[in-house]
From TrEMBL:
One of its GO terms (biological process) is arginyl-tRNA aminoacylation. The keyword Disulfide bond does not apply. This is Arginine--tRNA ligase. GO terms for molecular function: arginine-tRNA ligase activity; ATP binding. The keyword Plastid does not apply. GO terms for cellular component: cytoplasm. Its EC number is 6.1.1.19. It is found in: Cytoplasm. Residues 6-85 form the Arginyl tRNA synthetase N-terminal domain. It catalyses: tRNA(Arg) + L-arginine + ATP = L-arginyl-tRNA(Arg) + AMP + diphosphate. Residues 451-569 form the DALR anticodon binding domain. Monomer. Keywords: Aminoacyl-tRNA synthetase, ATP-binding, Cytoplasm, Ligase, Nucleotide-binding, Protein biosynthesis.
Length: 569
């Protein structure tokens, strides 16, 4: 919890019978301009209870409370009680904390002994890993890092789409038109071509759809040939997927796809039956959810095969037993909202109290040139091509502008990949994104490369000053950092923890991207307005401490987004 907000809340609570400090701290705001203070408490919320005008409440509180000397004054303005920091003391406290804690700055142990399961990425086997999969992958990876920073034990799960009728389609296509050599040479593209070919041919020969369903039933019945082909397709696809995950710097604790739960579903179906939750519908089995204004949740088809819902219910029960999670997050696009609402309700109807700990984290869809990305139509933009394109463009820029840069290829990878990730995470999670080759590699404006460059600029200043942060202990005189430009940087360092908490509570990494862009912009204003390597030793020391603190927080912020921070660019 932000210590300054907590301090304000406790002081206000001491002067009131209610609400509690815990409630008050949630109401404290950051004013739109520094003229209105550093924090503000809106007294409108107390007006009805105390039967007084907000301005009167603000005046009374201003006279009653006694703040720590970290604050220079309190002032009642228009129904708000505003709090102003002592800028000298704030600078000394914040910079000292950043420089002593480094990568642990703004962290917490609040998640100690609590587990968060995060189900993310989840591409389909035998289908391409396209730009539409990027969102789940990078949002999930960032949330994994953010929750971990706040002390939670995170379990990253890649619930691969490795089961279903699409495999029957690929088997039919492979047996009719495929070749082993092509699949081994280009697994993802080869399997995609077969999948598209199947749909083209099935429009002329509808009986191919029946043949595909038959092959999937064979898979479920343990047919040796069907399972052998399925396993081969899966292994070849996973090899290619891991190359992309390696480029993105994404790690999973478990690759447990849908097939992992095949031998675990019967006990769950039996339990649903024992709890009188199942109904027969023309041979299919479902859970009736009409009372909850939802369509029925189908758990078994009339041919005996299972569905996504069956496997998701089974997976949730398995995860609770295995990991005893405090919360289990599911990262998918919003088109699956109903699917999750249905099977979450089924878990609740099974009398599992932890149903409330299941959370769908939906995000907007990715379209390409106004069209949905569809594997069956072949209208995909391969993620690997996007990443490689970004890396190539960065390398060409380096060759043109800084050809003597050491480790050019490594820097090009860090910046190119960072651009792709930051571009995605900078959008509000729920908004749709239209992918365009023209904007995919944009490095101008509020981008990942801009933040990375600002970090490299800070490192360059420290390098010129001959400072080794592993050995250096700064003597910070805060009186040299009281001006508006310096204070703006320090306030953004101070509120960095608030952004992390906000991003975590809303499962919204874009809050963090916004914060580090703002910090980078404020620092660049400071850099241009204030010479740093000046003759006055105390001024230089104070400004270098600010530079070093910004460097540490930009690196930390980027790392929580899953992005590296090169020292040179």
């Amino acid at each position: 919890m932000n210590p300054f907000k907590q301090m304000i809340a406790e002081n206000i609570a001491e002067s009131l019978e209610h609400p509690s400090a815990q409630e008050i701290v949630q109401w404290i705001e950051k004013p739109p301009t520094s003229d209105l203070g550093d924090y503000a408490f809106p007294c409108f919320k107390l007006s009805k209870t105390l039967k007084k005008a907000p301005q009167s409440i603000a005046l009374e509180l201003s006279e009653a409370i006694k703040m720590d000397d970290m604050f220079s004054k309190t002032e009642a303005i228009g129904g708000y009680l505003n709090f102003y920091f002592d800028r000298k003391k704030l600078a000394e406290k914040v910079l000292s904390e950043v420089l002593s804690q480094k990568e642990k700055f703004a962290s917490s142990n609040e998640g100690a002994a609590k587990t968060i399961c995060i189900d993310f990425s989840a591409p389909n086997i035998a289908k391409p890993f396209h730009v539409g999969h990027l969102r789940s992958t990078v949002i999930g990876n960032s949330l994994y890092k953010i929750y971990s920073h706040m002390g939670y034990k995170c379990v990253g799960i890649n619930h691969l789409g490795d089961w279903g009728t699409q495999f029957g389609k690929v088997i039919v296509a492979y047996k009719n038109w495929g070749s082993q050599e092509r699949i081994e040479k280009e697994p993802i593209q080869g399997l995609l071509d077969l999948y598209v070919k199947f749909h083209d041919e099935s429009e002329k020969k509808p009986e191919l759809e029946d043949e595909a369903r038959e092959w999937f039933v064979k898979m479920e019945q343990g047919d040796e040939e069907a399972l052998s082909l399925w396993k081969w397709f899966s292994e070849e696809t996973i090899k290619e997927l891991k190359k992309i995950y390696s480029l993105l710097g994404v790690h999973f604790d478990h690759y447990t796809g849908e097939s992992f739960y095949n031998n675990k579903m019967k006990p769950v179906l039996d339990e649903l039956h024992q709890k009188n939750l199942l109904e027969d519908s023309q041979g299919a089995i479902l859970v009736n959810l009409e009372s909850y204004n939802m369509p029925p949740c189908l758990v078994q088809k009339k041919d005996g095969s299972t569905l996504y819902a069956t496997r998701d219910i089974t997976a949730a029960i398995y995860r609770k037993k295995t990991f005893d999670f405090t919360k289990c997050l599911y990262l998918t696009d919003y088109s699956q909202n109903l699917h999750f609402a249905q099977w979450f309700k089924v878990i609740e109807l099974m009398d599992y109290e932890w149903a409330a700990d299941l959370e769908h984290v939906p995000f907007g869809r990715v379209t390409h040139e106004g069209r949905r990305i569809q594997s069956r139509k072949g209208t995909v933009v391969l993620l690997e091509e996007v990443i490689e394109g970004a890396i190539e463009r960065v390398f060409n820029i380096i060759e043109e502008k800084n050809p003597e840069l050491p480790n050019k290829k490594e820097v090009a990878v860090d910046v190119g990949v960072g651009a792709v990730i930051f571009n995605d995470l900078s959008h509000n999670r729920i908004k749709d994104i239209s992918f365009s080759w023209d904007t995919a590699f944009s490095f101008d404006g509020e981008t990942g490369p801009y933040v990375q460059y600002t970090h490299a600029r800070a490192v360059s200043v420290l390098r010129k000053a001959g400072i080794d942060l592993e050995e250096k202990t700064f003597q910070i005189e805060g009186s040299y950092l009281e001006d508006e430009v310096s204070n703006q940087v320090i306030r953004q360092l101070e509120t960095f923890e608030d952004s992390i908490r906000d991003a975590m509570s809303k499962n919204e990494p874009s809050i963090l991207t916004r914060h580090i862009v703002d910090l980078a912009q404020s620092f660049n204003r400071f850099y241009h307005d204030h010479p740093i390597l000046v003759e006055d030793v105390k001024v230089k020391e104070a400004r270098l401490a600010l530079v070093a603190s910004v460097k540490e927080v930009l690196k930390l912020g980027l790392s929580l987004l899953g992005i590296k921070a090169p020292d040179r660019m």
